[in-house]
Design brief:
Low-confidence stretches: 557-569
Radius of gyration: 29 Å
Structural class: alpha/beta
Strand order of the largest sheet: 3-2-1-4-5
Mean pLDDT: 89
Helix content: 55-70%
Strand content: 5-15%
Distance between the termini: 30 Å
Amino acid sequence: MELLVDLTYTCAKEAIAFAKFGPLCESQKRAGVQLGETYVNDRAAKEFTMTIGDELAEQLKCELAASDFVSVLVDGSTDCSVIEKELSYIRFVNADGLVCTKLMALKDVQHANSSGLLCVLKESLERVGISDYDKKLIGFMSDGASVNFGSKTGLLTKLKQDEQMPWIVGIHCLNHRLELAVKDAFARTAFSQICVLLTNIHSVFERSPKRLRALHDLAEIMGEEVRKPARSNGTRWVQHKVNAAKILLKQYGLIISALANITDDPKIKGYLKQMNTLKTLALLHLFVQVLAPIGKLSEYLQGDATNLLFAQSAVEAALATLANLTKASYGEELDKLVLAAQAKLAESETGIEFQSVCIYGLKDGIDVVNSTAPDIAKKLSKHITSRFSDILSESSFLVRALTVLDISVWPETKDELYEFGKAEVTSILQHFAEVLREKVDSSEVMGEWLQLKIYISSHMRHLPAERCWSVLSTGKAFPNVIKVINLLRVFPVSNAVVERCFSTMTKVKTDWRNRLGEEEVECLIRIKKEGPVPGTDAAKALVKAAAMRFLKAKPRRGGSSKEKDHSSE
């Protein structure tokens, strides 16, 4: 039985269809593996998969039962069957003191309004054993859609008012904010033309194998390496843009030569004319330079270990980098390009050579760069500051409270250390009084907070902050204040994990598997995203537990005579 469950588990991890299970079993039999004659069909594969998914869900229930506070991350999308889905993740501190973000549920949405989403969220929480969500739920994260954050009828408003949980803190996904800030800054600027060009060049070679083959042939003749122009939009929007621009710049001359050989599409002439100008070439260099720090910020915000305090520092660092762009040089590559163009203009020449092709429009290109560089950096800074105002503001009670988590900035002197964090801990006790009432003795918190600060400063200052809190969370010392600390640790920063899960959904539920139901898709995603690597000790333990669960839940045919006697009675 365990061999069959293990094979099913591997198929689920690799998104192999249930219908392939039978042939795979026959292949294993031919190799000498003893699998028996029963449970070697697609129906058994589905039952095994659901059992493994149930086992993982049961483990999640146990983890959540031991946790004091949770935050939820939600987002919606549509699958290949054009069914609206609501995906929810849950963030908590587990028994080992580690912050975890795990799949809670993937549900079909009957009504995509705030009332319908509230029903879905409540069902999802109850399915993972949190029926008392009004005593655990402290944070809510989503994108900025009005159905989630509308001031009158949004989902967050309903949680606070209809469900009587006014303490819940709603956080608009920081990665989504960053995308919106970049989009706002690029609107009606020369960079918007670069974005369109990147999309157009990708389409030229993505949709035509003939053109792509011609590009590779040309690269072979010229002795150059070539990569297909990349897609410039996607889940990680900023990084996609930067990557697409870098690829285009690296083979700029080769792409121009390939476009010049295409004569069956009049649009190509327009792309070719645009790329033959210094304006486009210089803007591409500037595009990469300006977006590089934004791309790093976006990637950092997607990290599982990032909290709001670290996110605040990262945003401030990105803003400082952008401020330097308004007064510093353009960068080494762009400087060389501008100097070369200025030298040619001084000699009354009209073009320069770049990667074996001729680039024209030198004066216009230099003028555009001189006007665009400081302007775009200022616009980006302005819109990022606006979008992240609550995170950057010193008046944000949550960001102020989170400073207590960073032990590296704690005061060195004893007098300052004794006073540090009092106001922040007090504000948390007041704001979350309702959910803390049954879990924390508030009268003991401030005393424990003082003892905790002294202990950490004396014995644990050398540890990273997360490691320090994880260790203390598993002990019995400071039981009240540690719960307050763990409450602060579960606030999320980004919905990136949810977006990645939707990408996984497109691999699990394809056009060829579009009849998979809600529960089957959820189980398959849970296994693929959170199941241990096949063959490891953790995977073997999961397979063994799932096999036992299956045997207990499904009576086998041909039971013992004792079982038959009991059944006849």
